[in-house]
Amino acid sequence: MNGSRGCFFNTVLFLICVFLPVVSHIIETVMIWEDEHSPMGKLVWLLIVWLIPIVGSLLYLLIGQRPPSGNYIRFAQPSRQA
């Protein structure tokens, strides 16, 4: 009985410690590639995120993202009437 419970907790521990950080890094890598940084800026952010796991991700999410430039629909702004 204890063996099956240990297997369950090992699986949960694996998901928390290995799977979720890898998936979040992959998602953040896609976010960096789609952001409007220069090629060197993208490379620097990718290195920061992948080499400094938790701190790099937080830095990018807090200060690294750029607002999109262009004619995007932004919420809570009045529409322009011609």
UniProtKB/TrEMBL annotation:
The chain crosses the membrane at residues 7-27, 43-63. Its main location: membrane. It is found in: Cell membrane. InterPro entries: CLS_N. Keywords: Cell membrane, Membrane, Transmembrane, Transmembrane helix. It is a multi-pass membrane protein. Residues 31-65 form the Cardiolipin synthase N-terminal domain. It comes from the Bacteria. GO terms for cellular component: plasma membrane. This is Cardiolipin synthase N-terminal domain-containing protein. It comes from Ktedonospora formicarum.
